[in-house]
Design brief:
By secondary structure, the chain is an alpha+beta fold. It is built from 14 helices and 14 strands. The strands form two sheets. Strands 6, 7, 8, 9, 10, 11, 12, 13 and 14 form a nine-stranded antiparallel β-sheet that branches. The protein has a five-stranded antiparallel β-sheet with strand order 2-1-5-4-3. α13 packs antiparallel against α14. The radius of gyration is 27 Å and the shape is elongated.
Length: about 475
């Protein structure tokens, strides 16, 4: 290996974990060193991608700085010229670390291509500051095929506490555990805000997206009896996250608590299928145990045209899971037709998605051989009508060429919360809901906030209707 290649391998080993750094500026002997400006004055830059860390072989270390008037050991990097940069958190404070913790980070960086995930390593990480664990796992998740067990070092007991509280509040007559800081306070005096050491914030995003955020809002909203439309958005977001998370990244106790919460969310008629599937993913004995519960049809549009009789024929699948029945068909005219029926649940949920207004069920159409990230997946939103038999929806969409899948596992959400859905997706969905006419759409959409994108989509839809 030549010297240039050796240098490239060496300099990439130790780089910042966080996106912000500051140069440690020495003072006169005996005086405390101070920190320079963040990222040399460019706070929008990401220190992890700075050229300086790819052209000079830095060494992982820790230094003592003044923090709130007290000496504090913080995470740092040292250059061959002995200059030092200190890593900063999201508010510009140095990332706290122990001397052993800095050594552990250095060891992990050296073993970046084959990270250890032994219980001892996880235990060592749990003794470090939460900021350090967050930044380390963020970079690990971004740059490596990380062992799932490493993410167990996060404070999952916070997630478990929030999940248990929310589950209790969704149980008729259930009594949630009272946080220590709320004990003895009069109602309304800070109730609903978790103590600082229980707050979820962004700490869990390296392990799972759309989990801590909606869980926190759900827990707090239920605890204070939050009024107005909000429940379907947070419930759908949480279930979406639970359907996407890698279960092995969550400790068994966390999976159990979230599985119970998913089951409680499933007392809502519209959420029942997604909640049941999420609970199975978390509680199943094997990673694929939930697959028998999915509402997914694999179809072939070319098969319709290649029918042995010589005449185009329909082909389709009848999907049934619990309370949900879906009839998915490819017509000779090249359309995919989906009819969905959701039977009522037994019992009376504490909160229901129907309180937030008309619901829309996402329907994903994905050509075989591609993923959602490839951009070939198309999503439509099926309006669910309430009938005496439950909820009913109908869609007719263009069929992709060849083999494709139609997926109905994602949770419904109130139309008012589709305010970030692209215009083209809303417009295509209006056309696909063939049983819904312009007057019905106006009845529903005219009630939405003025800036909701459904207004523009409805105007475009009406302009495209045959005159």
């Amino acid at each position: 290996m030549n010297s240039i290649a050796q240098q490239e391998d060496t300099v990439a080993v130790h780089r910042p974990l966080s996106s912000w750094i500051a140069v440690l500026e020495p003072r006169s002997p005996g005086a405390q060193a101070t920190l320079g400006v963040i990222n040399d004055g460019d706070e929008r830059a990401d220190a992890r991608d700075m050229v300086r860390f790819r052209t000079v072989a830095w060494v992982r270390t820790s230094v003592i700085v003044d923090q709130d008037g007290q000496p504090c050991r913080v995470l740092a990097l040292r250059a061959p010229d002995r200059s030092v940069v200190v890593e900063l958190d999201d508010v510009g404070r140095p990332v706290v670390v122990s001397a052993d913790g800095a050594d552990l980070v250095a060891e992990l960086e050296v073993r970046w291509a084959g990270l250890p995930a032994a219980p001892g390593t996880v235990a060592q990480l749990r003794r470090q500051s939460l900021e350090l664990r967050y930044f380390l796992l963020f970079r690990i998740g971004r740059e490596t095929a990380a062992p799932a067990e490493l993410f167990h070092c996060l404070p999952w007991e916070r997630v478990e506490s929030a999940a248990r509280t929310a589950a209790a509040l969704l149980t008729p007559g259930g009594t949630p555990p009272v946080p220590a800081d709320d004990a003895g306070r009069p109602p309304g005096d800070g109730i609903g805000q978790a103590p600082a050491d229980e707050q979820l914030r962004h700490w869990f995003t390296p392990a799972a997206l759309s989990l801590a955020g909606p869980l926190s809002v759900l827990r707090n909203g239920l605890l204070v009896g939050r009024a107005g439309p909000w429940f379907s958005r947070e419930a759908a977001a949480l279930l979406t996250g639970l359907l996407a998370v890698e279960p092995a990244r969550l400790p068994a106790s966390t999976r159990s608590a979230l599985s119970v919460l998913a089951d409680r969310l499933g007392t809502d008629q519209a959420l029942r299928h997604s909640a049941r599937l999420a609970a199975a993913r978390l509680a199943g004995p094997a990673p694929t145990a939930h697959l028998d519960l999915t509402l997914t049809a694999r179809l072939d549009s070319d098969f319709v045209l290649r029918a042995s009789s010589g005449a185009p024929q329909e082909t389709g699948a009848l999907l049934e899971q619990g309370l949900v029945t879906a009839d998915v068909t490819v017509t000779p005219g090249g359309a995919v037709v989906v009819e969905l029926e959701i039977s009522p649940t037994t019992g009376s949920p504490v909160r229901t998605t129907a309180d937030d207004g008309p619901l829309c069920h996402p329907v994903a159409v994905t050509p075989i051989g591609v993923t959602a990230q490839d951009g070939s997946q198309v999503r439509y939103w099926m309006l669910l009508d309430s009938t005496d038999e439950g909820l009913y929806g109908f869609l007719a969409m263009p069929a992709p060429e060849g083999q494709f899948e139609v997926g109905l596992d994602a949770p419904p959400v109130a139309l008012r919360f589709l305010d970030r859905v692209p215009h083209r997706e809303l417009l295509a969905s209006l056309h696909a809901n063939e049983h819904i006419g312009p007057s019905h759409w106006h009845t529903i959409i005219d009630e939405l906030p003025p800036r909701h994108p459904a207004h523009a989509a409805l105007a475009a839809y009406e302009a495209q209707l045959p005159s």
